Amino acid sequence: MNQHNKIIDSDEIKVLFDGKSFIKTVTFEDDNISILYYETYEDMLQNSEKLLITEEEFNIFFTPTTIEKIMIKNTSDILFKFPFVKNISITLKTNNYVYSAKLNKTLIYEFTGVDIGKFNDSNEYKTNFASIHLDKKEIRNKLFQQIVNID
Questions:
Q1: Where are the beta strands (DSSP E) in 4-113?
Q2: Which of 63, 64, 81, 99 has its Cα between 20 and 30 A from that of 148?
Q3: 1 pLDDT exceeds 50?
Q4: Where do the domains of the chain lie?
Q5: What residues form DSSP beta bridges with 94?
Q6: Is 35 helix (H, G, I), strand (E, B) or coil?
């Protein structure tokens, strides 16, 4: 199969995200991924047959650190794991804010100076990029402030 015509199953994407149970939709079109999280617990109830998450769990899940990881770390991991993906757009509405970002490898390079497309395997990616730029709260927060729109 042509790499650029590959179909990604939404579960392949969800498994890489913190709060995967809170993801409402994942769309993949023209090598672009779009992710939308549930806005409210009620919205989640309406769209899920077997909900194993309580309203309290939903309400306390989206801490500032978790939101940063979702918007920066998880999206970067997707771009590394699926090299044919051009852009990943993500929207998360919680705590009366709308967090949105459109991330791609070029933007990551502009902000970090690292070409994540050059890594041959996940160990090299983790050692030379993720552990330096994504796992350290201060650096991840700086990327978050530069890349994520908050309304």
A1: 23-29, 32-37, 87-94, 97-103
A2: 81
A3: no
A4: 3-103
A5: 97
A6: strand
